[in-house]
User: What shape does this take?
Amino acid sequence: MSARVFTFTNNKGGTGKSTLCSNVAHCAALAGYRVLVIDLTCQITCTTLFLEGGEALEESETVLALLKKKPDRPITAVCHRSHKNLDIIPASVSMAQAVIELSAIPIGGEKVLDRHIQQISDRYDYIFIDSPGELNQITSNALVCAHKILVPTRVNRTDFQCTETMIQFIEEVAPLIGPKEVKVIINMLDDRYKTIWAGSHLGKLYLQAQETFGALLSPITIPESNDIRTAFDRGLTVMEHKPKEVAAKRIQELFQQEVVGSGKR
Ligand SMILES: Nc1ncnc2c1ncn2[C@@H]1O[C@H](COP(=O)(O)OP(=O)(O)O)[C@@H](O)[C@H]1O
Ligand SMILES: [Mg+2]
Assistant: This one.
């Protein structure tokens, strides 16, 4: 059976792509699934979280070795073991080189990563891809691979606009990348804005998100959480830092709802 692939994307930085990608992936690994994380971002957030010394890797040990013509390495050579059940293909701070090389491929440049993933797909249950906060050739590669696209957004007008642009882009490129299941995930929203403070500015924006995204909006929202932030500062996911607290429980619910509950592998 081949892995089901989930891509975290948004045409906007800071919405929580890397945070949700790493935490949901670790949640899956802790639940006993075989997990691969692929970091495609020059911020190397998942890379440094999951690999000690991740910031000092040679280019040939990162995903660049798959996306650039040289060095041409098999995908198994760039898969690194992180935790039990969790492997990572790290990114490099020089990801821009891949954008340039992929753009120079006349046909099929958006399918390079997908071809590599096919080689190892049966070794994993789930593959989680962290993609860049911009629309470029790397993002297209991340979208092509996905069975499902998860779009984190915070509750503000700019994030909503970027999220709408992202969804529109995914629809527009459907003839090229195939139709994709998409879910928008509200990140960093205190639950109280959904009920007691529903009439407040943020409460109204949450209602606006429900109207704007409709069926594409995930019922699970992730709260603004110091545990998530401090976990990352300590080089941990919230799943290991504070497994019993609200944020970790909500990540588990998100995993159940949008990953496990999203169709057969
Ligand atoms: N739910 C959350 N609660 C608190 N801080 C968060 C949460 N989600 C993300 N953050 C913080 O917000 C910042 C941006 O998150 P990040 O995942 O790096 O965004 P992106 O990958 O989309 O650019 C990071 O400092 C991260 O620790
Ligand atoms: Mg990121």
In short: The domain at 4-241 is CATH 3.40.50.300 (Rossmann fold).
